[in-house]
Amino acid sequence: MAEYLLVESQGRYAGPGSRDFLGDAERLAASGHTVTVLLIENGVTDGVGTGAGTGAGTGSDAVERLLEAGVRVWADGFSLEQRALAALLRPGVRRVGMDEVAEQLLRPAVQGVWH
Amino acid sequence: MGGGTGRELPRADMLIAIMGAPHTGDLVTSAFRLAQALLERGASVHLWTCGHATGLTRTSLGDEKPRNVVDWARAYPTTAALAAELLAAHPAKLHWFACRFCSQERGADAHIPGIRLRAPFKFTEHLEAADKSFFLGVC
Fold this sequence. Notes:
Chain B: This is DsrE family protein. The structure holds two protein chains of two kinds. By secondary structure, chain A is an alpha/beta fold. Chain A is built from four helices and five strands, in the order βαβαβαβαβ. Chain A has a single domain (3-114), classed as 3-Layer(aba) Sandwich (Hypothetical Protein Ychn, Chain: A), CATH 3.40.1260. In chain A, strands 4-3-2-1-5 form a five-stranded parallel sheet. In chain A, helix 1 (17-30) packs parallel to helix 2. The relative contact order of chain B is 0.26. In chain B, helix 2 (79-89) links the parallel strand 2 (45-49) and strand 3 (94-99). Helices cover 27% and strands 21% of the residues of chain B. Chain B has one domain: Hypothetical Protein Ychn, Chain: A (3-Layer(aba) Sandwich). Chain B has helices at residues 27-40, 79-89, 100-105, 123-129; strands at residues 12-18, 45-49, 94-99, 115-118, 130-136. At the A-B interface, helix 3, helix 4 and strand 5 of A face helix 1 and strand 5 of B.
């Protein structure tokens, strides 16, 4: 089975593309592939908000489904800081730096896709 | 060595193709951050700019952006200066190419030293020369 790093850079407020792309991640995981999703730039808006007292809304259903499907969901720390969203990261989404992203991309089995 | 038709290309661990227009978002920042992180891990990188992204390294940008009226003394480097810095720091590992057609179409074919102009038809050679390719944005 293949290993993927899917990078979402737009987020749910930019249109349906984000939901569809994260849906692809969910389907890849359901097919048995190992999937990591990185939320970056405005894509980090999908990684905030649990509704559980964070004051950040209910969050992204697509990310919720990813987490339930066992997909690793990362959020770029720089993008979070730029948008003052670091404190609102939802449980289950891990903050990472570009170092970790580069390490992941350089692993021979991993294929990266940017959206 | 890849290529085989004309100039040969060095092999690369990663091809980063910046297709999206700069200044519409954080794409360029992400591209620089990713390239730097890869290079610091010893990876070899081809960086290809297409469309408006070819303007990132045009000579006319100079070294500094226009002054910030609310922070007069601070100097902000241009993308051309950042590219030059990255190229100088990793001369053997980073190879930066700009699409000739896109550059000329925008009057931006005068690039800083270290940027090689390539015909769009040569792009497939870069795909062959790199173990992985990563497309950022669309033209």
